[in-house]
């Protein structure tokens, strides 16, 4: 399920260019919280060596076990070579706790999406999904601003990943992998065995990571 085409900010270090500006006046406690958020974000980075891969719907032409394309989408059918420089991607999605702290530090109000979920009376899971350890659901501009703010604080080029970088990382550096799970297979736990991804709201990092050490690259409540 996805609300109003919301996206989650997965932090990326790549390319050049920083957002300039200065912080609002912060208390000593907020300064400590800010530094903890920065340190945590840097500590979550996973280095991904660049390379060239076939981006797009490689389908059954590269998978002897399948006779179907890997995606039903119509905008990713053209398979083409893409070459990427090395980059670093956060191993976790940004949580509500991290995102709301950023809003507080930059003197921004809580988002409408968060408040609507928090105040939902009829669907308890929506309220549950706003806990600090759950992935934040935000629009593109807020996700972008969050990443650029981290770049401003650290002097490093934080940004959102491009579509190519995301696909390259999800496919373990461009391998012909259909599902971004720990072993490239699909198991939601309904048929027994270990569930490999969230089929509902869940805290970040609960399910096994991919071989690159990235969590929650598929599934998970609002993220779809």
Quick summary of this structure?
By secondary structure, this protein is of the alpha+beta class.
Textual characterization of the structure:
The radius of gyration is 18 Å and the shape is globular. It has one domain. It has 224 residues and is of the alpha+beta class. The N terminus is likely disordered.
Largest sheet descriptor: 4 strands, antiparallel
> What order do the helices and strands follow?
EHEEEEHHHHEH
How many β-strand stretches?
Answer: 6
In angstroms, what separates the terminal alpha carbons? 5 Å
Q: What radius of gyration results from the CA coordinates? A: 18 Å
Anisotropy-based shape: globular
Mean pLDDT across the residues is: 84
Give the count of structural domains: 1
Structural class: alpha+beta
Low-confidence stretches: 1-9, 11-22
Please give the count of helices.
6
Query: What is the percent of helical residues?
Result: 25-40%
Question: Secondary-structure map with pairings?
Answer:
Elements: E1 12-13, H1 28-43, E2 45-48, E3 51-55, E4 80-84, E5 87-90, H2 96-105, H3 112-118, H4 124-128, H5 140-154, E6 158-159, H6 163-170
Antiparallel strand pairs: 1-5, 1-6, 2-5, 3-4
Helix pairs in contact: 1-2
List its salient traits.
6 helices; four-stranded antiparallel sheet; alpha+beta; single chain; two-stranded antiparallel sheet; 224 residues; 27% helix
